[in-house]
TrEMBL record:
SUPFAM superfamilies according to UniProt: Acyl-CoA N-acyltransferases (Nat)
One annotated GO molecular function: N-acetyltransferase activity
Spans through the membrane: none
GO CC terms: ribosome
Name the record gives this protein: Ribosomal protein S18 acetylase RimI
Residue ranges annotated for the N-acetyltransferase domain, each copy included: 9-163
Entry-linked Gene3D superfamilies: 3.40.630.30
Record-linked CDD domains: NAT_SF
Biological classification of the source: Bacteria, Pseudomonadati, Pseudomonadota, Betaproteobacteria, Neisseriales
Pfam family, one: Acetyltransf_1
Keywords: Acyltransferase, Ribonucleoprotein, Ribosomal protein, Transferase
Length: 166
């Protein structure tokens, strides 16, 4: 467990590019194992897509000294109830060497405060149904499981099929 007394949370700054790429490489290895992307691919995706003009997401970084140790990808979505915004979190990830140090909870608190500041009526995200650690983490924070909405997706082949229908 690391000492998080020097933890700083805020939006991405350009001087954090390399450390953010390192964290995303750790994430690729965590989720993909031997099929993880190369650092060059992760770096290019960060630079060209995540931080690109068409991205629509903001990166919230948790930093300890010069190292990015956690991140969240968030977006404000409109419309939401009563002409407000909805904050949607696409990703929450803490570096494998920094887990169980309160970083995920600190990121969630920061994001909740930001959502309130922006007048959001809610803060939503998805989680894999079999990710018991994440489910317990979110429940301990006081989040409620939404069961009256269904999540849909077009995968690669279905997306191509739909796009090809004129």
């Amino acid at each position: 467990m690391h000492d998080d007394t020097t933890l700083q949370i805020g939006f991405y700054q350009a001087d954090r590019l390399e450390s953010t790429a390192d964290l995303l490489l750790d994430m690729s290895r965590h989720y993909n194992g031997a099929n993880a992307s190369s650092r060059e691919t992760v770096h290019a995706n960060l630079r060209d897509n995540i931080l690109g003009a068409d991205s629509g997401v903001q990166l919230v970084l948790a930093c300890s000294a010069d190292q990015v140790v956690g991140l969240a990808c968030i977006s404000l979505l409109y419309p939401a109830p009563k002409e407000s915004a909805q904050l949607f979190m696409k990703e929450l990830y803490v570096h494998s060497g920094w887990r169980n140090a309160g970083i995920g909870a600190a990121l969630m608190r920061w994001i909740a405060a930001y959502a309130q500041h922006k007048g959001c009526s809610r803060f939503d995200w998805t989680v894999d149904a079999d990710n018991t650690r994440a489910l317990e983490f979110y429940r301990q924070l006081g989040a409620s499981h939404v069961s009256d909405k269904l999540y849909f997706r077009f995968g690669v082949d279905a997306l191509a099929a739909l796009a090809g229908q004129g």
